[in-house]
Specification:
The chain is built from twelve helices and 16 strands. 33% of the residues are buried. The chain is of the alpha+beta class and 396 residues long. It folds into two domains: 3-184, Beta-Lactamase, CATH 3.30.450.40; 187-395, 2-Layer Sandwich (Alpha-Beta Plaits), CATH 3.30.70. It is 40% helix and 30% strand.
Length: 396
């Protein structure tokens, strides 16, 4: 093992592995440089836990002569029989190093040993990658060298683990920040916040189609069902909308109890007003079908979900609003206020989908003129439109 080259690799990692701009590229370059320095690694794995509601962790596998392969696992992995007998279990749970020499009968307690032995491996070591706060990720190192790793080579692996842990911690923190912002404020808002738009009052104007929806009868529903059941119902209900909104270019900005506010930006990149409004209407139809198919038990009966959504097109103010150091990235303006009023009108009319005159005039979706209605806070009445294919519940 060339000590000088090893130190160069460690220095390169401490400096941020600048010649490898992505984690897979960093892993490939680091592994290949270690091989050239005399470390006989055949396969390297890195396992990074994430702060994500659906994904427990990500994996990166480099194999000598091959590419870096990436993957993800969900939270169910922790309760799986495979994880219980994996060398990684004690690494994650106790932060300890685990070695499996393939000529040691005791290593047979790990089923992965037989799989790797069949591929010619002779030694395997799992090394914890410990963050500055004690949080543990893991790395695995496998060789085909006869007799396995020497003590000098194991020492080199341990020395690499330290800067590798720091690199992973930095990259993961930024990725976690991005994922959390995407999860809680949306992708577009998250990009702006990470880009430095964090001061109160810092806002932009943009043209957007506005979506404001509400679950009908939610107050009565909350009163007669256990809180846990209400949460489950809301999650099912929002699932029907969020997937349709995101698939059609929208961004969910806010959940307000049973309400949902989303925007579909209009610009040269995503398309003109007609194109954007057409996708908004498609999302509304998909959501309507999804919600209609849902049902929940209420005693001996089964109730259907009922919801309404108002669609409008206008200019909004999009940015940071709040008090002190507690801010919310959202959109405001008369256009949003009108959408909120239209949603209340939809409820009174028993309609699922209603649109403003401007939205319906741009989007050819088969609209019926439902008439003019006074709108609280606005000097003029608003003309409201509903879909031809929808019969008002109030007319039944």
């Amino acid at each position: 093992m060339n000590a000088s080259e090893l130190q160069d690799i460690i220095a390169w990692m401490i400096d941020g592995a600048r010649s490898a701009p992505t984690p897979p590229q960093m892993m490939a370059e680091c592994s290949e440089r270690l091989v050239r320095a005399g470390l006989p690694i055949w396969r390297v794995g890195v396992f990074v836990r994430t702060l994500h509601p659906e994904i427990y962790g990500r994996s990166f596998f480099w194999t000598h002569g091959g590419r870096v392969e990436t993957g993800t696992v969900d939270h169910k992995i922790l309760d799986s029989p495979e994880f219980a007998v994996s060398p990684l279990a004690p690494v994650f749970r106790q932060g300890v190093e685990v070695r499996a020499r393939f000529d040691d009968p005791a290593s047979a307690r790990f089923p992965i040993v037989e799989d790797l032995r069949a591929e010619g491996a002779t030694d395997y070591v799992a090394v914890p990658l410990i963050n500055t706060d004690g949080f543990v990720n893991a790395s695995t190192w496998t060789t085909r060298q006869p007799g396995g790793f020497t003590e000098e080579q194991l020492s080199a692996i341990r020395s690499i683990a330290v800067p590798l842990a720091r690199y992973i911690e930095i990259v993961t923190l930024r990725r976690t920040a991005s994922l959390l912002l995407d999860t809680y404020v949306g992708n577009r808002a998250g990009e702006k916040i990470l880009g430095g738009q964090i001061r109160r009052g810092h806002a932009d104007t943009m043209d957007a189609a506005i979506w404001l929806s509400d679950l009908r009868g939610f107050t009565a529903l909350s009163d007669r069902l256990p809180a846990e059941t209400v949460v489950e119902i809301l999650n099912l209900y929002f699932d029907c909308q969020v997937s349709a909104i995101r698939a059609n270019g929208g961004e969910v900005l806010k959940f307000m109890g049973d309400g949902l506010l989303a925007v579909f930006p209009v610009d040269d990149y995503v398309g003109d007003e007609a194109e954007v409004c057409s996708r908004v209407l498609e999302a509304a139809r998909e959501s309507r079908a999804g919600v209609k198919a849902l049902q929940f038990p209420n005693g001996d009966d089964v109730e259907r979900f009922r919801f309404g959504v108002a669609l409008h097109l206008g200019r909004v103010l999009y940015g940071n609003i709040g008090g002190g150091d507690r801010l919310d990235f959202t959109c405001i303006g008369p256009a949003v206020n009108l959408a909120a009023r239209l949603e209340k009108i939809a409820s009174r009319l028993g309609r699922t989908v209603v649109a403003s005159e401007r939205f319906a005039g741009i989007c050819d979706g088969g609209w019926s003129d439902l008439g003019e209605f006074p709108v609280a806070g606005f000097s003029r009445a608003a003309r409201v439109y509903g879909l031809h294919d929808e019969i008002s519940a109030a007319a039944n």
